[in-house]
Design a protein that fits this description.
heterodimer, A: alpha+beta, Ubiquitin-like (UB roll), five-stranded mixed sheet, 5 strands, B: alpha/beta, FAD/NAD(P)-binding domain, five-stranded parallel sheet, about 25% helix, binds flavin-adenine dinucleotide, binds FE2/S2 (inorganic) cluster
Chain lengths: ~110, ~325
């Protein structure tokens, strides 16, 4: 199973095996990773699953669609490497990906 | 004080259908929602998106579903209390006393919490001091545009609210519109108009970095992705970053919670407090699915227990809508 590393804003780091086909958000929720709220349950309607993706991985991801960009506008402290983790589907190519959660989601 | 059989917290799809399930049993309910209209997530987050998994309705949008639910409960002439958040609940013998943010008081043997993921509230600015200036120099909606006359206004956001207010206020004030990217989510023709008229200073690829001032705001600093900072003289900040769901006071009511959800007993969707029920997205139990159809079922079961508490001297009888004359009378059906 691909491994995804979630780093909290405090620096706390957890590496989790996430099943292929699940989103990075689902991986976090199922494993009770703090820092990802996902209030709309993956509907791309809340931006509380916002993460920063480490540069080298960010460039490997399929580009965010307009709807995702629109939601990121409303996220807490968006940056260049911001994505919504509910839109990132785990695959073998993303094995080892590292994401950081913002200081808070709302 | 408003006395009723059931107070429903939340006018989302699940709260609306609960009105129906209570109504056909002859129970009166009052519905309170923080939003200015009914529909919850369906109306606020996806009014135009089609839903395909409402039983018996192959396809309908969030807005259509809301309208249909409202039509279905019309016979019960339910009172809605919008723009009010339920703040406090306290016990009073067999009844519960609720207080809203507008200090309205309700008394009822039953409370059904159909609060979804919490009440919808504007997303606030995160920079230091934004809170200090809130409602004085920082606003998340416009109630009286005249106060902005001749002033320097900095508007944040990329959606329709930001664009519309930039255009409208540019007629009476000095407006700067700030957005984090070049693309705007709002209607292209409003943006086109803004650019054509040329009165609004549009700064893209910038975000708010800090607010400067004493009693009042003097200026703001905005920062670009590459770290460039610019100062803008500002009297008022308007920020339009949409709505967010905040659990809010519900977490302080002494209910058994699991993160942002309330644990219930699946026989009647009662919480750990007698007479307080939780249905829809806000409740949790083993196997819970956050689906509208699940919420409908949960409301039906909760309504039976509400009946028992509101009518302790009557016996609850299970009946079908197709055959019960009593239910049909409550629904205003004219018998042929
Ligand atoms: C983009 C998207 C797509 C979806 N698609 C589907 C789908 O296809 N099928 C499906 O079944 N589900 C879908 N859902 C999920 C569905 O919308 C929810 O399950 C449903 O809205 C839950 O209804 P509810 O009435 O429990 O809560 P909500 O719809 O969240 O309504 C809760 C209401 O309670 C109010 N409230 C909360 N606390 C308070 C308080 N203290 N005082 C006053 N008011 C309060 C809130 O303002 C809100 O209006 C989707 C969700 C999203 C975001
Ligand atoms: S979970 Fe709401 S946008 Fe991702």
């Amino acid at each position: 199973m691909p491994k995804i590393t979630y780093i909290e804003s405090t620096g706390e780091q957890r590496t989790i095996d996430v099943q292929k086909g699940l989103s990075v958000m689902e991986g976090a929720i199922q494993n009770k990773i703090p820092g990802i709220d996902a209030d709309c349950g993956g509907g791309m309607a809340c931006a509380t699953c916002h993460v920063y993706v480490k540069e080298e991985w960010f460039n490997k991801l399929p580009k965010a669609e307009d709807g995702e960009q629109d939601m990121i506008d409303m996220a807490y402290e968006p940056k260049k490497n911001s994505r919504l983790s509910c839109q990132l589907i785990v695959s073998d190519e993303l094995d080892g990906m590292v994401v950081t959660t913002p200081t808070k989601q709302t | 004080m408003i006395k009723t059989d059931v107070v429903i917290v939340g006018a989302g799809p699940v709260g609306l259908f609960a009105v129906h399930q209570l109504g056909i049993k002859g129970l009166k309910s009052e519905v309170i929602d923080n939003l200015d209209k009914a529909g919850g997530q369906c109306i606020e987050l996806y009014p135009d998106k089609p839903i395909y998994d409402i039983a018996g309705i192959p396809e309908c949008t969030g807005e259509e579903l809301t309208k249909n639910l409202l039509d279905q409960i019309k016979p019960f002439k339910t009172n809605f209390h919008f723009n009010e958040r339920v703040q406090e609940i306290k016990n009073d013998g067999n009844n519960w006393i609720l207080k809203t943010s507008k200090n309205k008081i309700f008394s009822s043997p039953n409370i059904i919490i159909a609060g979804g993921v919490g009440s919808f509230e504007p997303r606030k600015l995160s920079v230091k001091d934004a809170e200090k200036y809130e409602d004085k120099n920082v606003f998340y909606s416009v109630t009286d545009k005249n106060k902005f006359k001749g002033k320097k206004i900095s508007i944040f956001g990329g959606g329709d609210s930001a664009l519309d207010w930039a255009l409208e206020l540019s007629k009476i004030a000095n407006v700067t519109l700030i957005h984090r990217r070049e693309e705007f989510r709002g209607a292209p023709h409003t943006l086109g108009e803004l650019k054509k008229i040329g009165k609004v200073d549009i700064k893209t690829k910038y975000q708010l970095a800090s607010i400067e001032g004493g009693e009042k705001i003097k200026s703001i600093n905005i920062k670009s992705d590459d770290g460039k900072e610019t100062q803008i003289e500002t009297d008022y900040i308007l920020s339009f970053f949409g709505l967010i769901m905040k659990l809010g006071p519900i977490s302080e009511w002494g209910l058994n919670m699991d993160k942002k959800t309330i644990k219930v007993n699946t026989e009647n969707f009662e919480t750990n407090k007698k007479g307080i029920f939780a249905i829809g997205d806000i409740c949790t139990y083993p196997g819970k699915l956050k689906l509208i159809l699940s919420g409908f079922h949960e409301g039906a079961l909760a309504s039976v227990e509400c009946f028992k508490r509101a009518r302790p001297n009557e016996k609850y009888r299970f009946e079908f809508t197709t055959s019960s004359k009593e239910i049909q009378a409550r629904l205003g059906v004219k018998n042929k």
